[in-house]
């Protein structure tokens, strides 16, 4: 069977399960008595094992198998959780994660699992009674038997059965009856498949068929001799079940036996059945595998609400198509205005409204909750805190806040960096905290929220805060700051130094955050996403990093301006306001034209000069139109001829030929079909 | 069809005119031929980069081939065309005086480029094809579209 088509699904689902395991393990650590949580973890581990075995990732399967054994003991109260066991399980989960990553990158997912496997085994044998041990051995023995019994698929088959076993056990606990039923059809039966169908129909009206041998598909295709076996869960008594089936015509014999829930005995029995089945029809067993797996997958999707998985590329295509529409919308609006025919204008207006709604929907379709990124942090913080011997509590707020998928994919690493930074440099050791009169356990808050067209993510710790003098000293040492200017720097400016390249304040280069890459990487990354990051800190009380991100990367609001005969777009996100000044209000400072804007001296940048725009010879007014833009705390005034207006524009790249054009971040297509360049204000502010 | 051509050994080229010379580019590298439309100037780029156009929703850079080959520039006319070519990941429009023919050239009619042809440096040429009464200069688009110069410009500015 070609596995490639299932590989994506496998990877996606593995990641989901690993995530679920990680989250649940953390819950379990705080609430070790909760059997429900253990059950959840067990189920995820079990599914993982089944999937990995089916896909032929043996190492992963064997490791999950061992982990599952341990979990099984825990959930049956035969083993008490302690932190050693937790650590071993966490390690195993990490290893599995590594394997999934390896598979994702095209590897075969193999890894040395002998050590964790040995540890897990030690846990199982060390704390578990001898009887159980024997039982376990028997079970393993029976598995081997199956494997020897015929095909490579023995392993998988066993997996499936253990899954059924779990279900069976659960239903038994819920007070259901478990039956093993063997139905034999009459020899002269003509439509065997139809009869089998009727039997199943009857059974399903009374309960649930856990497993059938041969598989349902084979039964439907009449690929069986005269008899088939099912494992059945029902609330009804044995007699009733037997009678119901016997009532169907052309049935020769019905055998119904209650299934014993003794672990070893049952497994052995199941194994026997399998051996029989495998020996009788190895090919059939093999075929049964795929559909059975698919069924569970389908079930899960439907259970998870009315959602479907859509390839992100399709959404990208949809977005591109819609961008075309936005351009045409602009063109239509312009035409309608020019023609001034009211009917046309009404229609165009209506279309604009609808396409506006459409735009919202398409944009929200690409939105995913930041939870996807956030939910791997609790685990990370836990491990780091352990390594650093610190006590830290991570509080997450606003995990439901949504961001564009492309942003989500990119934001993980910078956040990891900031969190590590907070934990390593921010939060003090318990002893230091006690001394400072703070609770021993530090708190890191990770908060996401919407504001206007932006999403903000805040990483806040209640640690020692930034030591300004140390930062300044370091900056001077590294030559980032001129000692002469050092005194004149504001607090904020000093904090900003943390983001300059080649800066790291940790005195000891630690494994956690001092890896030679500093906060400058975080800043660059976030700016490349069209966002920015700032830091604020109060000595002794903590530090806050604030990341501002655009909601989406493909359609932005911009102000269109005219300079001579050329049109440019300035992203609204960097505009503070627009203003008109008289010529005599312009002053000179250091051969630089400046204006007084609300009490601040703001340098003027002439777009005509910077962009070498040819003069069109039009008369000059006494007034200049200025767009005040900002980059962080700094401001500049872009001198233009006139403001055209605000518009939603679609970002387009200039292509691969024109790279790194100065102060131009891209282009957009205007309503009249012409291209307008988008100004990169960051490049214009020094 | 294609195989037959291979056997005879012909290349199909789009013929265009620059000044008084005729040039050819492999038809496989040509995406379309457009009439001149509004070009948006991109500031601080080399002089031969005329700007960008909206090519059915794709922002496409435009190069003036006369300027690229250091021929004197003239005003654009009715016959001026933009040939959109694609080489690898690059998609660029070339402004030419006229584009009006597609012809098959037997491979054996192509000769290696002489040192200087019409002032165009040999590096930009793939060869010269002699056809009855015409002389056709075949361009090496990889070289013509090399954006080394643009990258160099950056490093000066940066």
TrEMBL record, chain A:
Record InterPro entries: Bact_Chemotaxis_CheA (IPR051315), CheA-like_dim (IPR004105), CheA-like_homodim_sf (IPR037006), CheA-like_P2_sf (IPR037052), CheA_P2-bd (IPR010808), CheW-like_dom_sf (IPR036061), CheW-lke_dom (IPR002545), CheY-binding_CheA (IPR035891)
Organism of this sequence: Brevibacillus borstelensis AK1
PANTHER family named among the record's database cross-references: CHEMOTAXIS PROTEIN CHEA, SENSOR HISTIDINE KINASE CHEA
Stretches assigned to the HPt domain: 1-103
Protein name per its UniProtKB record: Chemotaxis protein CheA
N-terminal signal peptide: none
Molecular function terms, GO-annotated: ATP binding; phosphorelay sensor kinase activity
Chain ranges of the CheW-like domain: 555-686
TrEMBL record, chain B:
Keyword Cytoplasm: yes
Compartmental location: Cytoplasm
Keywords, in A-Z order: Chemotaxis, Cytoplasm
SMART domains recorded: CheW
GO CC aspect terms: cytosol
Domain CheW-like: 10-150
GO terms classed as biological process: chemotaxis; signal transduction
Name listed for the protein in its UniProt record: Chemotaxis protein CheW
Originating species: Brevibacillus borstelensis AK1
């Amino acid at each position: 069977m070609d596995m490639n088509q299932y590989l994506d699904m496998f990877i996606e689902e593995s990641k989901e399960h690993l995530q679920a395991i990680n989250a649940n393990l953390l819950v379990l650590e705080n609430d070790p008595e909760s059997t429900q949580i253990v059950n959840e973890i067990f189920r995820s581990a079990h599914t993982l094992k089944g999937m990995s075995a089916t896909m032929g990732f043996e190492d992963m399967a064997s490791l999950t198998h061992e982990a599952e054994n341990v979990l099984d003991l825990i959930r049956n109260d035969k083993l008490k959780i302690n932190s050693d066991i937790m650590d071993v399980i966490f390690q195993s989960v990490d290893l599995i994660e590594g394997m999934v990553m390896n598979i994702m990158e095209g590897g075969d997912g193999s890894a040395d699992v002998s050590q964790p496997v040995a540890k897990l085994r030690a846990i199982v044998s060390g704390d578990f009674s001898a009887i159980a041990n024997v039982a376990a051995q028997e079970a393993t023995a029976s598995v081997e038997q199956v494997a020897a019994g015929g095909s490579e698929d023995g392993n998988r088959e066993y997996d499936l059965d253990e899954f059924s076993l779990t279900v069976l056990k659960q239903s038994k606990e819920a007070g259901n009856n478990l039956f093993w039923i063997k139905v034999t059809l009459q020899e002269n039966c003509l439509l065997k498949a139809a009869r089998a169908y009727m039997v199943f129909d009857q059974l399903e009206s009374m309960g649930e068929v856990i497993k059938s041998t041969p598989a349902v598909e084979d039964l439907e295709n009449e690929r069986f001799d005269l008899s088939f076996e099912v494992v059945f869960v029902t609330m009804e008594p044995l007699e009733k079940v037997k009678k119901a089936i016997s009532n169907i015509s052309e049935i020769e014999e019905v055998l119904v036996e209650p299934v014993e829930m003794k672990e070893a005995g049952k497994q052995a029995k199941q194994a026997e059945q399998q051996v029989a089945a495998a020996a009788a029809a190895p090919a059939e067993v093999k075929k049964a595998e795929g559909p059975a797996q698919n069924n569970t997958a389908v079930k899960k999707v439907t259970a998870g609400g009315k959602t479907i998985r859509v390839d992100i590329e399709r959404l990208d295509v949809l977005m591109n198509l819609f961008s075309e529409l936005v351009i045409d919308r602009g063109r239509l609006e312009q035409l309608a205005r020019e023609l001034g025919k009211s009917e046309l204008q009404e229609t165009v207006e209506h279309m604009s409204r609808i396409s506006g709604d459409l735009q919202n929907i398409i944009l929200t379709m690409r939105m995913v909750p930041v939870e996807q990124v956030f939910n791997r942090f609790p685990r990370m913080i836990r491990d780091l805190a352990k390594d650093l011997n610190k006590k830290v509590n991570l509080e997450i707020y606003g995990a439901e806040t949504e961001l564009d998928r492309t942003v989500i994919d990119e934001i993980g690493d910078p956040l990891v960096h900031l969190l590590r930074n907070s934990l390593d440099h921010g939060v003090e050791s318990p002893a230091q905290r006690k001394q400072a009169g703070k609770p021993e356990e530090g708190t890191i808050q990770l908060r996401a929220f919407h504001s206007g067209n932006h999403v903000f993510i805040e990483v806040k710790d209640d640690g020692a805060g930034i030591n300004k003098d140390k930062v300044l000293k370091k900056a001077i040492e590294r030559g980032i700051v001129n000692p002469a200017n050092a005194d004149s720097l504001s607090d904020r400016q000093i904090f900003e130094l943390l983001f300059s390249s080649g800066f790291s304040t940790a005195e000891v280069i630690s494994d956690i955050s001092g890896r030679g890459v500093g906060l400058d990487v975080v800043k660059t990354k976030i700016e490349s996403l069209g966002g920015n990051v700032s830091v604020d800190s109060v000595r002794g009380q903590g530090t806050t990093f604030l990341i501002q991100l655009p909601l989406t990367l493909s359609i932005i609001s911009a102000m269109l301006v005219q300079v001579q005969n050329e049109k440019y777009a300035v992203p609204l996100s960097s505009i503070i306001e627009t203003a008109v000044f008289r010529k005599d209000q312009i002053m000179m400072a250091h051969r630089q034209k400046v204006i007084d804007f609300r009490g601040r001296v703001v340098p003027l940048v002439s777009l005509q000069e910077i962009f070498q725009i040819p003069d069109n010879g039009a008369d000059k007014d006494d007034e200049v139109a200025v767009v005040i833009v900002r980059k962080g705390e700094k401001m500049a005034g872009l001198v233009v001829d006139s403001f055209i207006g605000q518009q939603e524009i679609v970002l387009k790249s200039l292509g691969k030929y024109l790279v790194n054009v100065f102060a131009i971040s891209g282009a957009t297509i205007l309503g009249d079909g012409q291209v307008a360049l988008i100004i990169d204000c960051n490049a214009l502010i020094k | 069809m294609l195989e037959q051509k291979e056997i005879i050994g012909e290349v199909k080229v789009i013929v265009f005119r620059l000044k008084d010379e005729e040039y050819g580019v492999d038809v496989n590298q040509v995406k379309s031929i457009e009439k001149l439309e509004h070009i948006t100037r991109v500031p601080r780029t080399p002089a031969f980069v005329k700007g960008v156009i909206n090519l059915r929703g794709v922002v496409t850079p435009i190069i003036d081939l006369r300027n690229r080959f250091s021929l004197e520039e003239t005003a654009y006319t009715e016959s001026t065309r933009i040939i959109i070519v694609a080489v690898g990941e690059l998609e660029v429009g070339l402004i030419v005086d006229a584009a009006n023919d597609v012809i098959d050239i037997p491979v054996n009619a192509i000769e290696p480029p002489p040192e200087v042809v019409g002032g165009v440096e040999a590096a930009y040429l793939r060869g010269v094809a002699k056809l009855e009464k015409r002389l056709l200069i075949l361009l090496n688009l990889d070289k013509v579209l090399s954006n080394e110069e643009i990258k160099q410009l950056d490093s000066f500015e940066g």
